[in-house]
Amino acid sequence: MARSRRSDPGRDSLAPAGGPVVRLAIPNKGRISVPVLELLEKSGLHLDEGPERRLVARTPDPQIEVLFARPVDIPEYVHLGAADLGITGHDMVVERRADVAEILDLGFGKATLVLAVREEAPYKTPRDLAGARVATEFPVIAGDYFEKMDIPVTLVPVGGACEATPYLGIADAIIDLSSSGNTLRSNRLRVIDNVLGTSTVLIANHRSLETKKTKIEEVGVALESVIRARGQCYLMMNAPRSRVAEISSILPGLSGPTVMEVASRQDMVAIHAVVEEERVYQLIHLLKRAGARDILVMSIERMIP
User: Fold this and answer.
1) Which of 160, 170, 203, 222 would be 100's cystine partner, CB 3.0–4.6 Å?
2) Considering the domain 111-198, what is its CATH architecture?
3) Who contacts 257 (Cβ-Cβ below 8 Å, separation ≥6)?
4) What's this model's pTM, rounded to 2 decimal places?
């Protein structure tokens, strides 16, 4: 059933006279709240929260403000137009059946919604659970999952500590998020199926994508530039001109190294390259052997394609 869109009467409370505000909803708590705040800081959207966190915070851009909300509510806020953009889990979008555009995968908060049972339970496949009770914080996703496979179950909605329900006699199985699997193992649970993969995403209101396209694209580029820089570093070095080919063959840069003249030495060149941070240890040894010297390793805050 189609849902009507309604406006937020307090929506423009911080709006500048120079143009419409783009409101970005972010988690006020939960496992992705800290990474989201760090992402905003690195992208240049520092939050002016004052001595206490408010519902809405300003940023250095007078046309961008941040709304703090529960992660599960963010898809609905964006769907209804109370926020133009939102950062939340893909699982939350699916659970709320929100009609929004997922415009950027932010690459963190990766997890899998899994179907799990007690280690000693006789269930081997999802079909073995016909007639069983399944506890979950995701009744919509779980309901669609079992309906699609035509498996009759009784869903037991819970608000937390889902992994404890099989041992409390509340449920025979659970559908819950798992990232490393440690929580499942520590509670002696085993996975019998993967239900949904998820990660943190930037979502947008469809109408806002049309009416505030330029500013939304600015936000997207700012966030993506930080994501692209993760795990990358910048190498700078000097080397004999005669060793450029050998050094270039060692460097796995994004589009090959940049070679520049050294003003004070005609026989030397400067070589710059972006490389994966995890390879730096090995590369420095190889570069030294190939004749590179004065090697500098620098972190990268943002990369803009």
Assistant:
1) 203
2) 3-Layer(aba) Sandwich (3.40)
3) 247, 248, 251, 271, 272, 273
4) 0.82
